[in-house]
C-alpha cells in the first residue's frame, strides 16, 4: 500500500475515532445529567468522557502574562502580600475591568517585578475584570499599608486540578509566591475562591472534602507564608445551568468542614448569596457582585491584618 494511501486511511480512522468518542461523550453527558443541565453540564461531562476515552491529557490553561500596557513599579516596603487562587471568580472573569486609583498603594507581583494593580490581572486567566482590583485600594486604606497581590486563579479549574501531578497550576503559583517573598517577604494571607466547576460533579461531601483539604494543606505547608498567615476558604458553588442554579449543599458543607478542622483556615464569605442579579452570565460576577465580594472580604480580613 502506498504511503499516501496509508496516511489517508490512518487520518480517516483517527477522525472517525474522535467523532465517535465525541458522540459517545455527548450521549453520556445527556444520560448522566438528570437535571437537564443542557448545554453547560452536558458539555462538561462530554468533554471529560471524550478525553478519558481517547487517553488524552487534560488541556491546562495558561495565565495572563501579557505585559503590554502594564505599568512597572518599584516594590513597596512594609507591604501586605495577598495570595489569590481558585477559579474564574477569583480571576479576570468579572464583567467590568477596573483600574485602581493610580495614587493608591496597590500592586501585583509577576515575573519578578511589581506592577500597578489593574485589570486584567497578571498571573491569572481571563481578559476582563477582577474582584481584587476592587478590594486592593480599600484594604490599603483600612490597614495603612501598601498591598501587593500575587495571583494564580485558573478559570474552570477543579480542586483536583491543583493537585494533579501533571498540572502546572500549583507549582506556578508556589514559584510566584516564592519569588515575591525574596523581595517583599513571606505572604500575609491567602484568599482561595473555588467550587463552581466541582459543583456540577459533586453529589456527596465525602467525595469532595479530601480534595479541598489536599489543596489547602499543600498551600499552607509549601508556600512562602508567614507562620501566622491564614487561608480564607470561600464557600462557592453557584454557576450556569439547572444543576447549579441553587447551592450545592454537600460542597458547601465540605468547604465548611475543611475550614473548621484547621486553625489556619478561616471560613470565608458565602458568595452563593450573591445571586443572579450579581452575575453577568449566571456564574461570573458583574460589578455589583465583585464589589459585594470585595466588601465582604474586607470586613473579614481587615481586622486580621491590623486595620486601623
Keywords:
308 residues; alpha/beta; Rossmann fold; 2 domains; 8-stranded mixed sheet; 8 helices; 15% strand; hydrolase activity, acting on ester bonds; SASA; hydrolase
Protein architecture, described:
The chain has 308 residues and is of the alpha/beta class. The chain has two domains: 3-53; 72-301, SGNH hydrolase (Rossmann fold), CATH 3.40.50.1110. Helix content is 40%, strand content 15%. Strands 1-4-3-5-2-6-7-8 form an eight-stranded mixed β-sheet, with helices on both faces. Helix 3 (132-143) packs parallel to helix 8 (287-301) and helix 6 packs parallel to helix 7 (249-261). Mean pLDDT is 88; it is low at 25-38.
Overall form: globular
End-to-end separation in angstroms reads 80 Å
Number of helices: 8
CATH superfamily (homologous) name of the largest domain: SGNH hydrolase
- Helix-and-strand structural type: alpha/beta
CATH architecture term of the largest domain:
3-Layer(aba) Sandwich
Q: What letter string, H or E per element, gives the SSE order?
A: HHEEEEHEHEHHEHEH
Rg over CA atoms: 21 Å
CATH class of the largest domain: Alpha Beta
Protein name: Sialate O-acetylesterase domain-containing protein
GO molecular function: hydrolase activity, acting on ester bonds
Pfam family, one: SASA
Organism: Sphingomonas sanxanigenens DSM 19645 = NX02
Amino acid at each position: 500500500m502506498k504511503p499516501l494511501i496509508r496516511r489517508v486511511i490512518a487520518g480517516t480512522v483517527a477522525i472517525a475515532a474522535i467523532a465517535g468518542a465525541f458522540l459517545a461523550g455527548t450521549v453520556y453527558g445527556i444520560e448522566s445529567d438528570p437535571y437537564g443541565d443542557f448545554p453547560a453540564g452536558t458539555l462538561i461531562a462530554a468533554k471529560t468522557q471524550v478525553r478519558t476515552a481517547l487517553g488524552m491529557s487534560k488541556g491546562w490553561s495558561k495565565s495572563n502574562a501579557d505585559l503590554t500596557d502594564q505599568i512597572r513599579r518599584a516594590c513597596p516596603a512594609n507591604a501586605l502580600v495577598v495570595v489569590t487562587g481558585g477559579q474564574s471568580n477569583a480571576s479576570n472573569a468579572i464583567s467590568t475591568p477596573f483600574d485602581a486609583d493610580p495614587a493608591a498603594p496597590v500592586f501585583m507581583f509577576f515575573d519578578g517585578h511589581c506592577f500597578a494593580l489593574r485589570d486584567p490581572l497578571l498571573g491569572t486567566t481571563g481578559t476582563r475584570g477582577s474582584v481584587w482590583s476592587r478590594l486592593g485600594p480599600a484594604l490599603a486604606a483600612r490597614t495603612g499599608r501598601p498591598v501587593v497581590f500575587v495571583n494564580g486563579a485558573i478559570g474552570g479549574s477543579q480542586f483536583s486540578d491543583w493537585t494533579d501531578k501533571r498540572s502546572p497550576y500549583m507549582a506556578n503559583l508556589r514559584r510566584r509566591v516564592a519569588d515575591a517573598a525574596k523581595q517583599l517577604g513571606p505572604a500575609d494571607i491567602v484568599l482561595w475562591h473555588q467550587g463552581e466547576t466541582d459543583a456540577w460533579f459533586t453529589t456527596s461531601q465525602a467525595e469532595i472534602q479530601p480534595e479541598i483539604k489536599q489543596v489547602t494543606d499543600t498551600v499552607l505547608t509549601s508556600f512562602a507564608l508567614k507562620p501566622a498567615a491564614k487561608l480564607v476558604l470561600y464557600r462557592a458553588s453557584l454557576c450556569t445551568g439547572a444543576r447549579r442554579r441553587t447551592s450545592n449543599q454537600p460542597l458547601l458543607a465540605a468547604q465548611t468542614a475543611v475550614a473548621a478542622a484547621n486553625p489556619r483556615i478561616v471560613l470565608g464569605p458565602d458568595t452563593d448569596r450573591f445571586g443572579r442579579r450579581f452575575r453577568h452570565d449566571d456564574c461570573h460576577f458583574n460589578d455589583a457582585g465583585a464589589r459585594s465580594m470585595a466588601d465582604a472580604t474586607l470586613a473579614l480580613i481587615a481586622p486580621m491584618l491590623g486595620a486601623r
